User: Fold these one by one.
Assistant:
Number 1:
Amino acid sequence: MSPVRPFDYRVADSQGFALKPLDPSRFDADGYADYAARLDEVCGKFWQSSSGLLVYRRFRSPEVFSYGCADMKQSLAMQLAGLSTSMHFKTDVPNFLEPWYGNGALTAAFGADYEWPSGQAPSVRRMFRTVEEAISAQVVPVERTPTGRHILNMIEFFLDQTRARVPISLTDTQSPMNVALFLVDPSNLFLAMYDNPQGVKDLMNRIVGLQLEFARKQMQLIGTALAKPGHGFASSTAFNGLGMSDDHMLMLSDEQYREFEIPYIAGCGRPFGGAAFHSCGNWSAKVAAVLGIPGLQMVDGAFSPQTDPCPNQAEPFAALRGSGVCLNARIVGDADTVVNVAKKLHLPGMKTVIVTYCDSPEEQALAHQQLHSLNG
């Protein structure tokens, strides 16, 4: 058994893979479309089942999810390199394109512009001191903001360059609570849960409306190429749901989460088949609360120290047995590491996608075979 390796803080992206950009003219869109269609058949059968296991070898270019997102041509070239390389690694779920342009699409509707630290992903400075200020602010549809227009232009560019033959997800979609805490001073927002709970709920409803409008606009452009649930999740045209990052939930009590987030994250997901939940860090103590999201389709977490400096514990996720909710388990490490974690994680009656990051096709093939042996 190989030793467990710690999180490497020197690496820009713990889940990244070094790639050389691939010009769209050299990418075999038809070949990839046929390959993805074959895998989507496997994904479709899995999605219709109440339990089972798939293996997904994720390809993630670090530049795409940092400074490289500013240049849609560079972003596409790096992502196409990942898609092309992924075909040499044994997997059950196809990789997909992402029109990733930071996580501030919804804040742009309130007037927040991106700041671009050198060599980093774009960031957003909080605009409002109080919930009341955010509620009274003028908003515009996301698609009419510079950030929203850029995302839609990225989608159109990706579709044009691949002749709409390659699966594409929505941009990085944030939960209503994440968006609210990007906008409002956190201390004041948390106090408002006691002093002005209706104001917090009014803000959340406003965010939900903007979220639904922009998600629908993206989906209209992408059409049948839409990979779901989206950013950060194993995704397929055969899967369902709207993926959302909900990292700030770790600062809420379960009671606050049920009152101030669950109705709104569920409201965002409902028109699209249900919500898919992601949080960085260790949210294993919140599994029961998250499973209270009506219509929940998938949950995502990190499960090795190489993936996240504070990974999840496996045991609480046994609560997913028999629920039909899919667990998207990201495990950075060699084949031994991945399989040993998966043995603790994937139990009978669970529906699990094990996300791997093996360095070579040979190691990935070994991990794939051993992981599927766990499913009987």
Number 2:
Amino acid sequence: MKQTLLTIALLIMAGCAASLPPLKTVDKIDIKRFMGPWHVIACIPTFIETEAYNAVETYALDPDGTIDTVFTFRKGSFDGPPKRYNPRGFIVDAVNNSTWGMQFIWPIKAEYLITHLNEDYTQTVIGRNKRDYVWIMARTPHIPEGYYQRLVKDLENQGYDVSKLRKVPQRWPNDGSRP
């Protein structure tokens, strides 16, 4: 019995020792400037995104302070069937605007943390403390490879398994236009 209790205690302590610190979110976001379309450059995908092409997430601030979200993509190829999802975003921390809840199914709100945003609001990273999902997004369909690699290195340093990252294929007319 003592050995069983000791084993359980050691497993609990090992689990605590392996836990990662909370992700640091962006200090302050101008929420109105953050609104608009974001191309998904890469992600550790959820089950609905595993075959996404031309994925774009668009945010619009509603008068009640919630965020109307439209997530669109083509499934399986650039010519695949269009998919559209409309989760609702909720700003959890109105001081910095970088901690949200994202509700796909009532009443569950998924954690949605804005952990990176460059000064000109053209690239962002959205993550979760569990490190199970992450999204690298940009205002344009592509970002420079060197910048992408720096973001991937940052994610690895934060405890993400970057081998799970999937680059989302993006191809648009005039390659740079917004949908």
Number 3:
Amino acid sequence: MYGMINEQAIVKVDRLTKRIGSKTLVENISFEVKKGEVVGLLGPNGAGKTTLMRMMVGMIRMTEGEVWIDGQSVKQQFEKTAAKIGAVIETPEFYPFLSGYENLTYFGRMNGNVTEERIDEVVQLLGMGQVIDRKVKAYSLGMRQRLGIAQALIHNPDVLILDEPTNGLDPSGIHEMRMYIKKIAHEQGKAVLVSSHLLSEVELMCDRVIIIQHGEYVATQNIQSDKKEETEKIHIRVDDANKAAEVLEYDVLVKGNELIINVKDEEIPNVLRTLIEKNIQVYRVYEERKTLEEQFLELTGGKDIV
């Protein structure tokens, strides 16, 4: 699934800063986004996520720093970089009495050189074939969100920037949006930057997560490698925990009928083999791993996302 990730970053945010008077909204933030990956942007309310995205697409001026899109400066080469970016930063606006297809055709003309074939391709990519000819006023919130992404994609940009794309959606709509965003990155090869307050959803959607707080960079979490490489505590439920603790050559914490032990993945089979050889019944084995939410709260000093 991740074969299309390009190691060469197409988006480079370099020491980006935004000040209004004496107030600093974003300060000295740097990160990169590669083609073929979904990067999440997380932070408590007021952390500067939307301000950061607005600077990246040229909606507001940068006080300091620079954003590079495929080696070109957003400050100095705005028109060229704008052609390579698709974005949904605020609630997308449409003509409610036109159909979804007519709206896309209109916005395609504004972009120039957008063919009917390209519009049809985007409609198919986002699974909108059954509703695209309906008037937008009849669309659900989820369909409006998808139409907004379709509008951002019709000029075939290399970079897609989405501010809270799952906001207000029901669980089914969130699941569908997640699948489409991953498809856009992993199958279409786009670089996707997504902000969200739904930590569990970001964990399922993104390849990496950038955490900011008070307008400053805090950390980057590589979700896929964390899941594969982090060694956490292993819980083993047995019939006689005290006896099991005695036969194992590890530091073991006994909690009820469970053993809690720190081991590497490759050591787990030997641990279980030892218990079975000593006639100890093993009922359950599971790994204790910190969720993205727990990591987020640690990194931001316990401040919640909302």
Number 4:
Amino acid sequence: MSAELDFVARDTRVTRLDTAFRWPGGRHVAVILNLAYEAWSDGKAPGVGPMGNPLPAGAFDTNALSWGHYGVARGIDRLLRNLGRHKARASVMTSGVLAERTPAVLKRMVDEGHEIVAHAWAQDVIPATLTVEQAKADIDKTTQAIESVSGKRPVGWISPRGTPSRDGSRLLIEAGYLWQGDVFDDERPYIQTCENGRIVAIPLTMEINDLPHAMRFGRSPRDFVTMFDDLLANVLASEDQALVIDVTAHCHVFGRPSGAWAYEAIVKTVMERDDVYVATREEIADHVLKTAG
């Protein structure tokens, strides 16, 4: 494995996997099924919504807030049921505030074998905009809230917008985290080393992600399935190094009937294959440390 300086995280070294690295069973393609179960702080609304015409400056976007709440009201239940039909487990990015608002849902996730991924306190709490002290407090508050209601301490973290503090890796190591997903410069995990320890960085690949897919690019759910099928076929045929494909559904986007079927179609596909390693992010991190760490 080769080492280099991280060009985003402060005072951090990166050790990337060598070409011989493989997933369990000698497989070179891993698929992570992700859900995003998100909420906003009281008095805040999503910055993205279904309406194209902007409101006047200073107006509170009640439309976007109602649209974003769908994930809590309906989307999470539908997507968890869909995963359950195929005995599939997901890594669920979860806002800490939802530990207060929907504790039974977090307990259900753990009971059904899913991984709860700490996703900051709320979607409007973006670590890159915080001081080091504020970022540390957000990690502590979010971690404790999730653990207190789910009975399991989260070991993985992904920031809202995937936009961490430049001290984020060091702060997460300090808080005892195993992995973080706020990196986008690879399709394979790697190890970050700071002065206080190390953490596995698992890139959150964005190609099969419903929010940019539908909300930014205006593509259809059928396109979502086709893009995944094409991507999987091509990496199995042509890539000779291990990599990860993320499949991500936001509960307020593809948690709706119009998109949930597409996510489930992909779940069904990967769960029926034996040439793909389907794993949670915690399992990915564990394998990296056991075999390459």
